[in-house]
Amino acid sequence: MRQDAKDDFQAFLWGQILLFGLLAASLALFVAHRDLQTHWALPQLRLVIQTMVVVAAGIVAVLAGIRFAVEGRRLDLLLSSGFFVACISTLAFSVAPVLGGQPLHRAEGWAGVVGRLFAWVLIAAAPFARGRSKSGQGMLGTSTLACGIAMLIVWTFFRSTVHDLPPLAPVTGDQSSPLLTGSLAAQALLNLLAVIGFGLRFERKREDLDRWLGLGATLMLFASLHYVFTPLLGSDFVSQGDFLRLIAYGVLMVGAWRAIRFAEFGRAVADERARVAREIHDGLAQYLFAVATHATMLEHADGAAREETIANLKQAAVAAQQEARFAVLALSSASGTAPFDAALRRYVDFLTADGALEVDLDIDPAVRLAPDEQIELFRIVQEGLANVRKHANAHRADVVIGERIDGERFVTITDDGDGFDGDETDAGQGLRNIRSRAESIDGGFRLSTRPGLGTALEVVLRT
After folding, report:
1. Can you say how many angstroms the Cα of residue 147 is from the centroid of all Cα atoms in its chain?
2. Residue 196 burial (C-beta neighbours within 10 Å; 0-12, 13-18, 19+)
3. What is the pLDDT of residue 335?
4. What SS3 class is residue 442?
5. For residues 189 and 289, which has the higher predicted lDDT (pLDDT)?
6. SS3 state at 401
7. Maximum pairwise Cα distance, the chain
8. 209 contact partners, CB below 8 Å, separation of at least 6
9. In the 8-state DSSP scheme, what is residue 234?
10. Which one, 106, 251, 317, 397, has the greatest CB density within 10 A?
């Protein structure tokens, strides 16, 4: 384990120990001193808190669902399903029944207890889930539908057996039913399992989301313990457990949001690495291969052939140096066409040094190109001129990078070569590469060619 990773986990562990100590001390204070007030008759505030819990749980469910749709991890599927159940059960059984000022009935109260219990079964199982699902959005939709149906069945069951249900805990200090105490204690155990699971997962994988989920589960654990000792499930009172539950969902929401942002950053880094690798492969690697080839030929050459090989070797080395400079400039420069302009002209000079092809390059200095456009346009021109030189039997090619009156930026490559029948001949790999590069910068691609009339291709850049 790297030292920075070990320090990161130790910081998380000490933070958890401190949080456990503070929350346990607070719980012990209220348990030891029963005369301390643990609940307040604030029905409007309770409704506000429950509504905020619905919103927070829904946001976490959506964010986890987005991550599952992108990455397909079963962890995210369970998290999304669990928080969806928490959101729906709180909305259907704690908020909606009391909106008209009515008290919370026994059936809705018990359905809410079971809904939260079911939600934390899913959430506590998440850190132990392995692998990815190939179904993606289909699996997410199926899971959401199944959870919704399960909640409907729970509510229907309690509505049909409402007279057999034990009453919810009264506020008069009477003992709550063993079934209610057992249900709340089971939820506390599930919260503890989630704390352990996400803590172990954070130690193993060092994912930032696990850290936040562990903190949120810790707050939810002590909220559940407060409910065990103060089981106020009516619609008129709030307790410490309600406030801790709200804070826990806030922490979970922050963690899910950070995970989404980190995933976006990770994908951007991966895309950039792939793009850099492609630039090296398509450009610099080719010139280095030429250097290696000429160096091998030099071992067996003598006389005039040796001098010619040395000259070719120098030329290939200079070209590789120019290519490396362009790659650095294009990948790290801000917008502007100066590095791009100079590099493209150097490439054209190298391409036409043997006199086999004449190229006229016209770049409008007023055209502004983003860094990603500079890179792809350089490769498009490079690929286009390579096709002209290898396949078109052309003597001249014209490259224009400009801007029309309506502000449309474009690149055209035309030649006086043989042309081909575009309707009957499949596009070669070079043209497919050009089309792909144009699409990568949201550009359009058009090709015009006829046998004996040369070829013209145009890339229109994004507006």
Report:
1. 25
2. middle
3. 40
4. coil
5. 189
6. strand
7. 109
8. 255, 256, 258, 259, 262
9. S
10. 397
pLDDT of the residue at 427:
55
Nearest to 257 by CA among 212, 197, 221, 198: 212
As a whole number, mean pLDDT of residues 102-119 equals: 85
pLDDT band at 411; cut points 50, 70, 90: very high
Report helix, strand or coil for 362: strand
b/e string for 278-313 if b means 16 or more Cβ within 10 A? ebeeebbebbbebbeebeebeeeeeeeeeeebeebb
Higher pLDDT, 104 or 77: 77
Name the DSSP class of 136.
Answer: T
pLDDT on residue 286: 66
Q: What is the pLDDT of residue 333?
A: 41
Task: Tell me the backbone φ, ψ of residue 93, rounded to 5 degrees.
Answer: -115, -5
Mean pLDDT of 199-210: 85
Q: Which two tokens stand for residue 437?
A: 């590069």
Write down the mean pLDDT value for the chain: 79
Q: How far apart are CA 60 and CA 46, in angstroms?
A: 21
Tokens 């507006």, located at residue: 463
**DSSP string of 84-110?**
HHHHHHHIIIIIGGGTTSPPPPHHHHH
Residue pair 85/122 in contact by the 8 Å Cβ criterion: yes
Residue predicted with more confidence, 173 or 455: 455
The domain limits of the chain are 3-270, 335-460
As a CATH number, domain 335-460 is 3.30.565.10
**Pair 97, 217: CB distance under 8 Å:** no
Q: Averaged over 333-358, what is the pLDDT?
A: 70
> 70: exposed, middle or buried (C-beta count within 10 Å: 0-12, 13-18, 19+)?
middle
